[in-house]
Amino acid sequence: MSLPQWKVTRSTNPTPDVERERIIEKPVFGANLTDHQVVCVWEKEKGWVSAEVIPYGPIMMDPSSAVLHYGQEIFEGIKAYRHQDGSIWTFRPEENAKRLQRSAHRMALPELPTELFIESLRQLIAVDGAWVPAPVDEKTLYFRPFEIAAENFLGVRAAQRAEYRVIASPVGPYFTGGLKPVSIWIALDSARAGKHGTGEAKTGGNYAASLLAQGEGYENGCSQVMFLDAETATYIEELGGMNLFFVYRDGHVVTPSLDGTILRGITRDSVVTLIKDRGLKVEERKISLDEVRAGIQSGEIAEVFACGTAAVITPVGEFKSREETLSISTEPGELTTSLREELTGIQYGKVADRHSWMVKLAD
Ligand SMILES: *Cc1c(COP(=O)(O)O)cnc(C)c1O
Fold it and tell me: What is the rounded average pLDDT of the residues 8-13?
């Protein structure tokens, strides 16, 4: 099927330069959006019929629009990095495109071709490139591509009209307070995803399902929640929006295996590769809360970290639940810190990109 031709309509009222410079100097995650957005429309009989860049603004939506009722929605998170020479790059976009397709398949939405996905980022950067911050203090432009069922119909079936959009927000470090290890709340009364459910799809509903436990976590001084397997509440799965790694004292690393309920993090996959590159062993397997408790108490588990595009690699200082506190460390671990430096180094063009992960979006 042929892809639609791009049409670009520039904003007649863009953010003044001084104001934009002020925003990207100290960006707050998700608080400010750039001047434009991408909109691609899909219709059941015709496929992807249009691809446009338009001024940023609200979506006019009929109250009967399917997404508002049945949650047919998927999204991605991917960043644009400015390199020292001013050029703008992104990290492994084919992987995000493929994941968006898998999420679409699971949620009965149309699959956006990889080419259109990557071109949508290029098109947005072509008009909003000035929003990509200078490469200091981990500042980037965060893209939020998403797809929604956009048919005005209350009947329950897969929508016959869908929209893919991309918005973008300049961001600084996800967790304020530097590389300080975070506290994680263990959800004992709620699960995020069940067998054959939607855990592997990047869909809003998984996040909605995590927010009650997250609120409980906040009340207990934790910034994130860790979910256990829904069936037996025995094995560790992941955080609400990040994957987990456990570093053992002897140097080997364990991360929960992808069995359908865990999101296939691209950072997770990259970290597995970087650890193997160092000649260390990575085990992708089930890991129980009991094993983690015993490992932390004996000192066998030396470091724990979480990872995802938004927060890169973040050290975990402790796990807490209403029953216990498991303290790991108040300082970021050695491997955690060096993996973080290596990964951000690759992303900002300061460390050799051995695996050809970086893709240029603009000169
Ligand atoms: C997006 C996401 C991640 C991290 O994936 P990355 O591709 O590394 O950004 C992990 N877990 C969940 C539930 C997510 O939604």
Answer: 98
Six token digits for residue 245: 């790694």
Q: pLDDT, tens digit, for every residue of 37-91?
A: 999 999 999 999 999 999 999 999 999 999 999 999 999 999 999 999 999 999 9
At 184-215, the pLDDT tens digits run: 999 999 999 999 999 999 999 999 999 999 99
Residues 6+ apart with CB under 8 A from 289: 186, 228, 234, 235, 236
CATH architecture assigned to 182-347: Alpha-Beta Barrel (3.20)
- Residue 204, classified by CB atoms within 10 Å of its CB into exposed (0-12), middle (13-18) or buried (19+), is middle
**Topology of the domain comprising 6-171:** D-amino Acid Aminotransferase; Chain A, domain 1 (3.30.470)
Atom of ligand 1 nearest to the CA of 267: 8
Task: Looking at the CA of residue 99, tell me the nearest atom of ligand 1.
Answer: 7
Q: Under DSSP, is residue 201 helix (H, G, I), strand (E, B) or coil?
A: coil
Query: Would residue 221 be called left, alpha or beta, if left means φ above 0 and alpha means ψ between -120 and 50 degrees?
Result: left
Question: What is the average pLDDT value for the chain, to the nearest integer?
Answer: 96
Give distance in angstroms: CA of 154 to centre of ligand 1. 31
Task: Say which residue the tokens 């890991």 belong to.
Answer: 287
Residue among 29, 99, 237, 242 to mutate when testing ligand 1 (max atoms within 8 A of CB) = 242
Residue 170 corresponds to which tokens in the numbers above?
């300049």
